[in-house]
Write a structure and sequence with these properties.
The protein is an alpha+beta fold and about 80 residues long. It has one helix and four strands; from the N terminus they run ββαββ. A hairpin with a 4-residue loop joins strand 3 (about 45) and strand 4 (about 50-55). The termini are far apart.
Length: about 80
């Protein structure tokens, strides 16, 4: 895979649902592609501008907001009403 095109168009999409045991990651980002390869994942589909990975969804770890040592998410978000 070669990441081509504008940098704004090099996106990564992670899809999983409750009924399947596998998660799907579609990426047009060269950085994400390299990270997945380094972690031992083999692309199911490797196109010219994108790659598709399938892996067990238990491998997915989402960030826990407010639990970071750097304090990410510890401050409250102010919501302004437009009225």
């Amino acid at each position: 895979m070669k990441a081509k095109g504008l940098q704004e168009e090099r996106e990564t999409v992670l899809i999983w649902n409750d009924t399947d045991d596998a998660a799907t990651l579609w990426t047009a980002s060269n950085t994400t592609f390299r990270r997945m390869i380094k972690r031992g994942f083999i692309p199911k589909e490797d196109g010219e501008r994108h790659a598709l990975f399938e892996f067990p969804k238990k491998s997915v770890k989402l960030p826990r907001f407010g639990k970071s040592k750097r304090g990410f998410g510890t401050t409250k978000v102010k919501v302004e009403n437009g009225s």
